[in-house]
Amino acid sequence: MLIGSERGPIRVLIVDDNRDAAEVLGLLLGYWGFDLRIAHDGQEGLEAAQEFRPRFVLSDIQMPLMNGYEMTDILRHDRMFEEVVIVGISANGDAERAKRVGFDYFLTKPVDPAVLKNIFERHRPVKMVE
Fold first, then answer.
1. Residue ranges of the domains in the chain?
2. Which pTM was predicted?
């Protein structure tokens, strides 16, 4: 279970073209109490980020139309998203490239929930309890 900040639930945007993977991750984060949006490609992710203004973005890397590298590079060049924590998630992406374009973290699939929980806890005001 997650307790949000004094301003309410923490917003998380999930961007993944694999709908099943996005939904499973969404179920976990919903259980933890996050306010969620899901997008299924990089362009949709950019639009959702503009509207939703998430605190965290969890993005697949390899997606059609616009990949996670391209989306993150665009977000990082927008002052509105300077403080957003962006986590790259991929089965076979390039961790060095992810760092260069602005991902704060790079995780391999399948994501270990304990590692993800640790990332959320590092970036207060998130307070998670069992």
1. 2-128
2. 0.90
